[in-house]
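Typical record is below.
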Amino acid sequence: MSNPPPLTHLLYLHGFRSSPQSLKARTMAQHMTTQHPELHWWCPQLPPSPSEAMALLLHGIADWPRDTMAVVGSSLGGFYATYVAEHTGCKAVLLNPAVDPARDLTAYIGEQTSWHDPQEHFFFKPEFVDELRALQCQGLTRPDNYLAIIAKGDEVLDWREMQARYAGAHIRLLEGGDHALSDFEVHLPAVLAFLGLN
């Protein structure tokens, strides 16, 4: 069996209230810049509206080669990454991925602030919950294309739910840890290996 072609395009999707300034996004961006400068790296700031976020993403990757692209997503970004992977057939790495954000984010309707810039406010509208519901993928068509890194110590999401959602995928289940994966650098080699970027 021949080796898959090398990765040429990589998309990173941040979580709810997060940004391209997150530790994980910056860690990966720095690694790509220094170790894989030939790779096309894109980590957009996602709008609060899920349908607008997905429209931005699908437009941005419209001409990306499906067999040499991949997506990495954290939390809500992991939920979006699953949608992208299901619609493109690409590989996906999910970092404590949100499983049912339509349910979980109902509690956050109203004004919110950004984690990395508390001066930055946005409004999470009730209709965004329906937009999230519309992006829910029922099952994984190619579980082997997914690597899920799940922390049992996640204080926001239930690790059992994440593990069940990505049954059949490659799962790296961490004892302890936290939602932000504060020790992300420890897990970076596993992410890169899965993407063929060692």
About this structure: The radius of gyration is 16 Å. The first strand starts at residue 9 and ends at 13. The chain has a mean pLDDT of 95. The chain has one domain: 9-195.
